[in-house]
Amino acid sequence: MSQTHVETQGSTTDAPQFYLTEEHHPEGSTMLGFWLYLMSDCLIFAVLFATHGVLGRSYAAGPSPADLFDLPLVAINTAMLLLSSITYGFAMLQMERGAKAETLFWLGITGIFGLIFLGLELYEFAHLIHEGAGPTRSAFLSSFFTLVGTHGLHVTFGIIWLVTLMVQVGKFGLIPENRRRLMCLSMFWHFLDVVWIGVFSFVYLMGVLG
Predict the structure, then answer these.
(1) Residues near 6 by Cβ (< 8 Å), separated by ≥ 6?
(2) DSSP annotation string for 67-113
(3) pTM for the whole thing?
(4) According to its UniProt record, which protein family does this protein belong to (predicted)?
(5) What whole-number distance in Å separates Cα of residue 38 and Cα of residue 78?
(6) 168: three-class secondary structure by DSSP
C-alpha cells in the first residue's frame, strides 16, 4: 500500500493512512435528501388529487360516493392512522432520552396501528369489488382506487421500514445512524398522515356530502 505524506506543523512525515478519521458523511445531507424525496412525493399525490378532482363525478351511470362509502368505518380508519402518528411521537421522545426499550415499545404500537389501518383499507377495497364497484367500473372509481391505493402502498412500505429499524435499534441501539433513520421515518409517517387527512376530507367527506 502506498504511503501518504502527512504534513504536521510545517514538517513532512511518512505515515501509512488506511482510512479517513474525519467525518465523511456531510452533516445534514441525509435530511436534505429526504426532504427532496418528500417534495417529489407531494407532486405525485398532487397529481392524483387533481385527477380525482376532474374524474370524481364521472360515475358512468354507476354508484356514487354516497352509495359506496361507509363514513363511520373510514373515520375509525382515520383515527388509527392519527393515533399511530401520536405513538411515533412518543417513540421519538423516548429516543431523545436514550431509552431503547421504550422507543421500541412505542414503535411497535405505531406498527400495530398502521397494520389495523391497512387491514381496514383492504377490507373496504374487497367490499367495493364484491359489490361490483371495482376500479374498472367508472372513471370515479379508477381515480379513487389509484389515489387511496397509492397511499396504502406508502403505508405498507412505511411499516416495512419501521420493522427494519426496530431490528436495527434492537441490535445496535440508538446510535447516531439509527437516530437519523428514525427521524427520516418520522417525517415520512407524519407526511402520510397529512396526505390521508386530505384523502378523508376531499375524497370521502366531499364525495358523500357534496
Answers:
(1) 12, 13, 15, 17
(2) HH--HHHHHHHHHHHHHHHHHHHHHHHHHHHT-HHHHHHHHHHHHHH
(3) 0.85
(4) Belongs to the cytochrome c oxidase subunit 3 family.
(5) 21
(6) helix
CB atoms near residue 72 (< 10 Å): 8
pLDDT over 50 at 8, yes or no: no
Is the CB of residue 41 less than 8 Å from the CB of residue 151? Answer: no
Burial of residue 3, with CB atoms counted within 10 A of its CB: 0-12 exposed, 13-18 middle, 19 or more buried: exposed
C-alpha 209 chain-centroid distance: 28
* β-pair partners for 13: 6
Among 73, 72, 75, 55, smallest CA distance to 64 is for 55
In degrees, to the nearest 5, what angle opens at C-alpha 193 toward C-alphas 37 and 67? 120
Q: Model confidence over 148-201: pLDDT tens digits?
A: 999 999 999 999 999 999 999 999 999 999 999 999 999 999 999 999 999 999
Query: Measured in Å, how far apart are the chain's first and last C-alpha atoms?
Result: 73
Question: Which alpha helices (H) appear in 1-28, and where do they start and end?
Answer: none
Buried b (16+ CB within 10 A) or exposed e, 14-42: eeeeeeeeeeeeeeeeeeeebeeeeeebe
Measured between alpha carbons, how far is 65 from 172 in angstroms, rounded to an integer?
48
Contacts of 127 (CB under 8 A, 6+ apart): none
For 107-133, give the secondary structure using H, E and C. HHHHHHHHHHHHHHHHHHHHHHHHCCC
* Residue owning grid cell 417534495: 39
